[in-house]
C-alpha cells in the first residue's frame, strides 16, 4: 500500500477502527502500554491543545504514547478510564487486536479477548497490518513537519 492510501484509510472517522467486543473497562490496555502513534493521531491530539512532549515518547524508531507511573498519560487511575476516550489513538481503538507471528490475534492479556468474533477479526485484519506499516513513517512525518 502506498502512503496516500494509508493516509486516506486512517484519516477517516476513527470510530471505524473500534473493535466490537464486550469491553470490561478494566484499564488493562492502558497499563504498561507501548502503543504506537500515527501521524493522524498526533494531529488530532495537537488540535485538542496537547503538546507533543506531553503525550508522545520520541526515543525509538516508533513514536509511542508516553507512560507515566507505568500507565498511559491519558489514563485516569481513579476512574480507570481514558481522559481522551472520544479522541484516543487508532491503535487504542484496534486493541486488543495485535500482530503476532505475522497474524492478527486478540491479546491474551485482555480479559475481553474471547468476546471478539472471528468476523470482527477478519474485518479489521487488513487495518492492523496497515497500522503497523503506517506507524513506521510517524518519526519521519514529525521531522518533515518540524516537530522534532
Question: What can you tell me about this protein's structure?
Answer:
With 148 residues, the chain is α+β, with helices and mostly antiparallel strands. The model has no long low-confidence stretch (mean pLDDT 93). It has 6 helices and 8 strands, in the order H-H-H-E-E-E-E-E-E-H-E-E-H-H. The strands form 4 sheets. A two-stranded antiparallel ribbon has the order 1-2. It has a two-stranded antiparallel ribbon with strand order 3-4. Strands 5-6 form a two-stranded antiparallel ribbon. Helices cover 35% and strands 14% of the residues. It has one domain (3-144). The chain has helices at residues 3-11, 39-47, 52-55, 90-94, 118-135, 138-144; strands spanning 56-57, 64-65, 67-68, 71-72, 75-76, 81-82, 97-100, 103-106.
Top keywords for this entry?
two-stranded antiparallel sheet; alpha+beta; 6 helices; 148 residues; 35% helix
Amino acid at each position: 500500500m502506498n502512503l496516500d492510501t494509508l493516509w486516506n484509510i486512517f484519516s477517516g472517522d476513527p470510530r471505524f477502527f473500534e473493535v466490537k467486543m464486550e469491553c470490561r473497562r478494566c484499564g488493562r490496555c492502558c497499563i504498561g502500554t507501548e502503543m504506537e502513534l500515527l501521524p493522524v493521531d498526533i494531529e488530532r491530539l495537537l488540535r485538542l491543545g496537547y503538546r507533543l512532549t506531553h503525550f508522545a515518547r520520541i526515543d525509538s524508531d516508533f513514536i509511542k504514547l508516553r507512560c507515566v507511573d507505568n500507565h498511559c498519560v491519558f489514563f485516569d487511575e481513579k476512574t480507570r478510564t481514558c481522559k481522551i476516550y472520544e479522541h484516543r489513538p487508532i491503535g487504542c481503538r484496534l486493541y486488543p487486536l495485535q500482530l503476532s507471528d505475522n497474524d492478527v490475534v486478540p491479546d491474551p492479556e485482555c480479559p475481553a479477548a474471547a468476546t471478539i468474533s472471528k468476523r470482527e477479526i477478519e474485518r479489521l485484519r487488513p487495518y492492523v497490518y496497515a497500522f503497523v506499516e503506517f506507524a513506521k513513517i510517524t518519526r519521519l512525518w514529525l521531522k518533515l513537519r518540524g516537530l522534532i
